[in-house]
Amino acid sequence: MTRDRGEDVDRAGGQGGVSGQTIGQGGVFGQTAVVWPPWASAPGPNVSRETSEPGAAAATAEEPSAGVGETPLADQVAIDAQRRSRLSGKTFPRPAQTRIITVANQKGGVGKTSTAVNLAAALATNGLRVLLIDIDPQGNASTALGAQHHSEIPSVYEVLLGGRPMIETVQACQDVGDLWCVPATIELAGAEIELVNRPQREFRLHQGLTELRQSLQHAGQPGLDYVIIDCPPSLGLLTLNAFVAAREVLIPIQCEYYALEGLSQLLNTVERIRAALNPELRLSAILLTMYDGRTNLARDVVQEIRTHFSDEALAVTIPRSVKISEAPGFGQSVITYDRNSTGALAYLEAALELAERGGRN
To answer: How far apart are alpha carbons 75 and 276 in whole angstroms?
Structure first.
């Protein structure tokens, strides 16, 4: 699948930027119309845990059921209509200060990158200024936002190990006016080994992000509303940097029991970091992903999470969706790829709920 992503990256002067935009000392400047940035319960004994009754759709107890339809598809269409109605006319509140959220789970395949990218896009398409930092060497979040991330591109690697100002690594997302990305390149794969003997190794991302926010303030530019950090599926030094830089942790959890096994370890890690390195860090949200309402297993996992994490678990669940999987192949989030799809509507509702919470947890 190919898609015209617009102009290639301009590397004049050794700084990253998007061709067709003004390159200055600060990095990528917004296009003429863009003011910011200066850079661009268990089942009964005879009930199967595999499948539920045919009329079950991907709705939760908190999400009003569309009623009993003739088919699961009809139910889902009705649920999507309800979601559109709830989202219609909604204003996403702007936070009083920048919310820095790390999206983390050491287990892979739980929808972590999809969650980071699509929450960022959902917030940005609703009038909020959002920066996504890709700190996963795989660079999937960069791909999903259409950001250039080959080896010659200034990236988060240079911020962590080369002392490069983060403002020089930022790229503007071509599809969403208020969304920017600090990409990850393949060099990041060796960063954890290189960071071992570096001073202040846990604070490298924190320092880069602090300098970025100060640069915006000194330039008289509007600040960021959200910084979302996409982590690798591990608890190494890269994820540790993300935890130290953030104030909030959002954990995506797949609706399967294997996904629950590492949760206690992750929560213990968050507590240790809060005690030793970042007292502001806290778990603010758990998002249940890849939900299939046709299975009792998925319902059991949802119930268990919401029983033990009633304050943190978001009411919205993210269903399994082909559109969510397709969108990165076109260098897009599902929000811009198909805004009316089931997956996009779910992420829009999740972003609204996250924004309305305002980091209160």
So the answer is: 49
